[in-house]
TrEMBL record:
Pfam families: Lactamase_B_2. Keywords: Hydrolase. GO terms for molecular function: hydrolase activity. This is MBL fold metallo-hydrolase. The keyword Hydrolase applies. The keyword Protein transport does not apply. Residues 22-223 form the Metallo-beta-lactamase domain. It comes from Nocardioides humilatus. SUPFAM superfamilies: Metallo-hydrolase/oxidoreductase (SSF56281).
């Protein structure tokens, strides 16, 4: 079981398929046009709908929700479907709110996903800081997820979640061997409220993270479709292309898929 197929649905949302498993990350399926309120005066409008409708996904075995309190990572349409999609892994705060089908994890805690006829997946929650120093009480808890299973050739499949590059994230290469990285970018800012402070990585930080982690494959997500994303692919791609490991990065258009050796 050495291949993983990643389908970019839009925003942070991706379908991960390997060894019979079908796993969704940060599901968002609302139509475009709505404005979402993130708290503390921050808002965003959804500009583009999902490239694949939830009804067309087929069966889902598990869901990874980096955080539940921002509509660009879990929107009402997806939240209503969570109980039909198997186990949801998320933060402890989100699990307490979303229901019995959820398991809550803090950074560096692990759990397993098991199903008949499929390899067991060990999932490790990874740290995230969704903003500048001191912003955690405002932005709330967020985690990433690293997935390990038997037969991986290059290393684990890591979904970074919404985060900036900060000291705890720099610990990842000393704790995990990452083969494939689903990297959340977007350079989220709310200039009317907090100036130039960022709440997710920009391409420069993304390139630095690639250099630190040394994954074999990188698939960027979370850079299009929302008004609070300040660095789209057109702006981010040249920065990544000029980095030492540009050949490891695969940009996948919404609605398209890429199959990689895991």
């Amino acid at each position: 079981m050495t291949e993983v197929t990643i389908t970019h649905i839009g925003g942070p949302t991706a379908l991960l398929e390997f060894g019979g498993w079908r796993i969704l990350s940060d599901p968002t399926f609302d139509p475009p046009g709505k404005r979402y309120f993130f708290g503390w005066g921050t808002t965003s409008r959804k500009l583009v709908g999902p490239s694949i409708a939830a009804a067309d996904l087929g069966p889902i075995d598990a869901v990874l929700v980096s955080h539940h309190h921002h509509g660009d990572n879990l929107d009402p349409s997806a939240a209503a479907l969570l109980p039909t999609w198997g186990t949801t892994l998320t933060t402890k705060k989100a699990a307490a709110k979303l229901g019995a089908h959820c398991r809550g994890l803090a950074a560096w805690e692990t759990t397993t996903l098991e199903a008949p006829g499929k390899e067991t997946i060990t999932v490790t929650a990874t740290p995230c800081r969704h903003g500048p120093v001191g912003s955690d009480p405002i932005t709330g808890p967020v985690v990433g997820f690293s997935l390990a299973w038997a037969g991986q050739e290059h290393g684990e499949l890591w979904v970074t979640g919404d985060t900036v590059l900060y000291p705890a994230l720099r610990e990842v290469p000393s704790r995990l061997k990452v083969g494939t990285m689903l990297m959340h970018l977007g350079s989220v800012r709310f200039r009317y409220l907090s100036g130039w402070f960022r709440y997710t990585m920009d391409a420069r930080e993304g390139a630095e993270l690639i250099d630190l982690v040394q994954p074999t494959h990188v698939v960027p997500v979370h850079y299009e479709g929302w008004s609070h994303f300040q660095q789209d692919r057109d702006a981010a791609e040249p920065v990544i292309a000029a980095s030492p490991h540009a050949d490891r990065v695969r940009w996948v258009d919404p609605g398209a898929s890429v199959t990689l050796q895991a």
